[in-house]
Amino acid sequence: MNATRRGIITALPIVGAGVLGLGFWRILSGMRTGTFDPRAINNPQVGKPVPNFAIPGLPGLGDGFTDAELRAQTRPVLVNFFASWCIPCVQEMPGLRAISRDLPIWGVAYEDKPENASAFVKRDGTPYARVASDRHGRVAIDWGVTGVPESFLVMPGGRIVWHGSAALDPALFESEIRPHLARL
Amino acid sequence: MFGPEQGHFALALACVLALVQFVLPLWGAARRNGRMVALAPYLAVSQLIALAMSFACLVLSAVRDDFSVQNVAANSSIAKPLLYKITGVWGNHEGSVLLWTLILGLCGAAVSVFGRNLPDILRARVLAILGGVSAGFQLFCLLTSDPFERVFPAPMDGQGMNPLLQDPGLAFHPPILYTGYVGFAVPFAFAVAALIEGRVDAAWGRWVRPWAVAAWCFLTCGIALGSWWSYYVLGWGGYWFWDPVENASLIPWLTGTALVHSAIVVEKREGLKIWTVLLAIATFSFSLSGTFLVRSGILNSVHAFANDPARGVFILGLLALVIGGSLALFAWRAPSLTSGGLFSPISREGSLVLNNILLCSICAVVVTGTMYPPFMQLLFGRTISVGKPFFDSATIPLTLPLLLAMGVGTALPWKRAQLAKTFSHLYAATGVAAIGVVLCFWKLSGILPVACGILAIWVIAASVSDVLRRLGLGHTGVRGMIARARSLPRSSWGAALAHIGAGIVVLGLCGMSQAEHAIVEIHVGETRSLGGDDWTLLDVHDRIGPNYKAMRADIAIHHNGRLVTIMHPERRDFTTQNQTTTEVSIHTNLITDLYGVIGDRHGSGANTTYVLRLHRNPLAPWMWLGGLVMAIGGAFSLSDRRLRVGAPKRSSIRNMARA
Q: Domain segments of chain B: what residues?
């Protein structure tokens, strides 16, 4: 074995370790900014039309909505599954209020007593354009929701193009959702 | 005297001592300054004393229920039994990092004490490297994971410990496993020191091997203990889940096993030098990355540590320094290491090379399977999980030739073997394996379990026949054999034992592949049969424990009308932590485990039913017993006179002359 070949071979480990290290660094910085979630799960609904459903509204917050109404929209809509018993949902509320200035948000209260959900939404001002109650979580199953909060970006015509399972804030909105809106 | 502030101070002192231990001996060795070089062992021992003081302070805080210490408040409570107050110290992130550094300190002190026959310069460099690694992790402990942090106002009682961790098996699993992980720091330090010196020779191989074997024994025991814990505490009936935390211990075990074998070639034949140095670096690097990446939250694991990306960044920086630094040194210096003796492919060396290739291939498979999910998500944004089907189908085909070679390897002579002569040594083992073929086809189903079973029997038979051949069976009488047994090196006994242990583990795994289980919902008095046994639920009653309420079942097991045992699985409700645990009941006769778990209660009154999970696990205990036999084999090999005495005088004199 000549000297150059030996040199190249003995340099391979550090190159490999360097690539791995770089990957870990990217993952860690993604975890800090919220763009990388090691526990994320693919949502099978992304890329598909919204599933069929019709759910009632919450007391004092108007009627519920159906998949037909969602499909009939001419602007993108963010569908947000939440619950009054969910702490990240509480943390998410100010972020949602900020996002609702750019994008209408339709809320779905997941496995929650309607009066609790209603009080929770009204407490600091609702971010939701419309809100409905999925009392027993049946609709959430069709959407492939694994927990709350989860959000879906629904395009005009009713196609789901993005799914997120972290509490939203304006920074995440800019990095994850805005690019989809720009493509319209 | 032993308060948390004193502990904190002692840790800081240890960190300073470790930094001095890193700088002075290296500088002294470079400048040929004898005084600085001679300082290294004293620094290592003082560092250990400071660390022990620090650790004692943390243990005392926990024992005294000092809830003003955040770590104690978060993980302990007044009602916790004393044993778990002590062992709970390392049941959490901060405490376990302190334990980690304490064990590293112990390794340094051990090198100082047991390494007296090493050349001074080499020992100083080894201690300096250990000091550098120590300093880094003590800084990590001080800056990001301070176990002595106070909380104000102090709570009246602590939050208690996860009841799953209140178990003797888990109490001693971390120290043993960490000793394994950290122990590989010593071969690592030897490798780096050899790279700095630019010289690897037979003596180096002889010095490194006992440290690698010792670490390997602990790691083997640690893995076996962890697997046993998950078997009898979690109550899932499984023993290995290919979880990232488990893989993190398996990866260094695989490279460590390769290291233990390749160091033999360095010692006996001065071959595979560069490769052995790389293995020593890789094993410790994997130990480090495994333990710490799990804690940064990158790898998605069922073993929850408080995940903190900020901590992760510090760890990553530290890993980059330790691993990157050593690999850079390797890339720079390794090409100049000259390789030694030549050998033909069919020889002891050749079989050890094959062993290394196969072990490293299995290691590559495990690394790929563990790293695939996060990297796929990073590169392509797709989340996937890699589990048992991948690992089983990728590792088992690599294990088969490994087992085959294990039987042949010890029968081969060094340099060049004559195939015909070697095979003549293996007739007996082949005969036993042929009986094994019948046995395996009769008892096991599935092609891979059958193949593994046959080869496991082959390994055991070949190891036994190898020892008998060395004892001169057929050539000398009983008295002659006993005389030979006395003079046979302990390391030969050790190797045979370790190989037999590996065979036993594989047989256990094969047996477990035939495990049967049933989930039944039955009334009191009903009977269900599973694998030829009749399980009858006799009664279920409530019981109050020290810090839990339990539902306890009495299950009678009959085999052909004969009572085998009455078992009492429990379901415990820990009210303070709001957590339920299952207390598995296991009846074993060392051949088959009967394993019962009680689940939910449904209905009420006469209509009450209970969910029971019944398992019949053939050869389950063999998996852990085999692990123990492997570790005992390693320990035997450590007690070999040649290793205890260290390098022969001739080479140590030669080294001193060169230094």
A: 1-162, 516-621
Cβ of A28 and B313 within 8 Å? yes
Q: Which two tokens stand for residue B397?
A: 């085909």
User: What is the per-residue burial (b if ≥16 Cβ within 10 Å, else e) of B26-59?
Assistant: bebbeeeeeebbebbbebbbbbbebbbbbbebbb
Residue labelled with tokens 């459903």: A53
- Best B327, B375, B382 member to test A by mutation, with max A CBs in 10 Å, is B327
Better-scored residue on pLDDT, B292 or B31: B31
Q: Is residue B146 a contact partner of residue B98, using CB atoms and an 8 Å limit?
A: no
pLDDT tens, residue by residue, B534-576 = 999 999 999 988 778 899 999 999 999 899 999 999 998 887 7
Helix (H, G, I), strand (E, B) or coil at B82: helix
Q: What is the spatial distance between Cα A83 and Cα A147, in angstroms, rounded to a whole number?
A: 10
**What is d(CA B386, CA B21) in angstroms, rounded to the nearest whole number?**
43
β A130-134/A105-110 pair status? parallel
CA A50, chain centre distance (Å): 15
Per residue in B234-277, pLDDT tens?
777 788 888 888 899 999 999 999 999 999 999 888 888 999 99
Can you tell me whether residue A111 is helix, strand or coil? coil
Angstrom distance (rounded) from CA B117 to CA A53: 79
- Contact between chains at A30 and B313 (C-beta distance less than 8 A): no
Listed by number, the residues of chain A in 36-65 with a beta carbon closer than 8 Å to a beta carbon of chain B are 36, 38-42
Per-residue pLDDT tens over the stretch B420-478? 888 888 888 899 999 999 988 998 888 999 999 999 999 999 999 999 988 888 777 88
CA distance linking residue B625 with residue B630, whole number of Å: 9
| Angstrom distance (rounded) from CA B134 to CA B112 | 15
Structure tokens that stand for B628 in this block: 């123990």
CA distance B301 to chain A (A): 9
**C-alpha separations of B557 from B529, B531, B561 in Å:** 9, 12, 9
Cβ atoms of B410 and B462 within 8 Å: the answer is: yes
B218 touches B177 (CB < 8 A): yes
Question: CB-CB: which of B274, B278, B374 is closest to A27?
Answer: B374
Least confident of A130-139, B216-225, B306-315: B306-315
Dihedral pair phi/psi, residue B547, rounded to 5°? -135, 30
Residues of A in contact with B374 (CB under 8 A): 23, 27, 38
Q: CA triplet B89, B92, B97: central angle to 5 degrees?
A: 80
Paired with B527 in beta bridges are B536
Single out the residue of B637, B630, B397, B588 nearest to residue B504, CA to CA: B630
Whole-complex ipTM = 0.83
For helices B93-114 and B168-183, the axis angle rounded to 10 degrees is 50
Indicate the SS3 state at residue B587.
strand
